[in-house]
Amino acid sequence: MEHPHLKATRILDFHMPDVQELLKSVPQTGSSRVDLQLAHQAIAEQVLPIYTVHEWQPASVTLRKGKGSCSQRIACLEAFARARNIPTRVRALWVSGTFWNARFPWTKWAIPRRILLIWPQFGLEEGWLDLDELYASTEQRISEQAPAFSNTGETLFEALTHSNMDFLGKGCEAGLCPLDQSLSRFVLEQGKWYACRDDLLTELGSFQDSLRGRMFEWIYGQRPSVVSQPSKPAG
Question: Considering the entire predicted model, what is its pTM?
Fold first, then answer.
């Protein structure tokens, strides 16, 4: 029986040629974490950011198209991880719709009160690693005074390299960061863990199937995300 955190799925279809090409392009460094960082950078370079709510799109299709949403590009990273025998799992985070107000100031009415964010972990030698700590731990980000992700100018996927993206409130729990400076203030509810995003979407549904989701896709679907060059962290 295939391991539930490693098997290919409808979305994480790492057996497909496009994902295999990504796998071949990223050298094996001997460190799963570094491999994931290199894969993240490769995906950021190869897949242009766009607006879309098609959560069920397979990773191979996103890579083939060369464009995708943050969620779709994160799915590509999960597919790469499984192809390299790195386990993945995901958690359901219900995030306040106000988190997206800065991006869509004229269509706030179309944004639901809460939006499902699929947040992955990767199984490394030292344990499960949250996506936001791919490049540095929460403690490191806070000590470096890294800016919290503002959801303006650049996408969440690009910002992983240099922003503090603590949706889970780890910094607050450790007494290192006040709540009003943590992205956890936008999280209305933390759901359970799922072996893969397919299982999560099957149980909880996808925004793309809702009336507002279809309206969003009609208005914004396939449009480029507004991305500027992120400022480099000091040091």
Answer: 0.90
